[in-house]
Automatic annotation (TrEMBL):
Domain of life: Bacteria
Signal peptide feature range: 1-24
Keywords of this entry: Signal
Protein name (record): DUF3617 family protein
Length: 145
């Protein structure tokens, strides 16, 4: 009798699920890590939609630094850390592509969690949040991996 109930319950689940077995979505993107312990990928300024973000609102974290559309190969040197707040010197190649000089800049980066950070260079800081690849415009999806 118990075997029949178990079989009936299994069939009921298949019917409820529309006859197809459930498939779980697996996050294959890199785990949080690197100098800031953020998830590597594309971040968009708070208040801006991931799908339509302009270049000025996008940052990319690769575990070694935070770049924008006009910089690459950024490397952070932590000068001081107090809790989730980092005082750093970040150097980047000052061009999105092609030859360019490496420039350095002092920044304060506050990491709220593995998906959110605030960066302050001069004046007030700007907060960015992680955007998963599927939410980005097609041209950015490859950069997010």
């Amino acid at each position: 009798m118990l075997l029949r109930i178990g079989l009936f319950a299994s069939l009921a689940l298949v019917v409820i699920a529309g006859g197809a077995p459930a498939v779980a979505s697996v996050d294959r993107s890199p785990k949080p890590g690197g100098v800031y312990r953020l998830k590597p990928g594309i971040y968009v300024q708070k208040g801006v939609a991931c799908e339509t973000a302009p270049n000025a609102a996008i940052r990319q974290y690769d575990g070694r630094g935070i770049s924008d559309a006009h910089s690459r190969a950024c490397r952070v040197r932590v000068l001081a850390r107090k809790g989730d707040r980092y005082s750093v010197s970040q150097s980047c190649i000052d061009a999105g592509a092609g030859p360019a000089p490496r420039v350095s800049e002092r920044q304060t980066v506050t990491v709220r969690d593995a998906l959110t950070f605030t960066i302050q260079t001069r004046g007030p800081g700007t907060t960015y949040r992680y955007c998963p690849a599927y939410m980005l415009p097609a041209g950015l999806r490859g950069a997010a991996k």
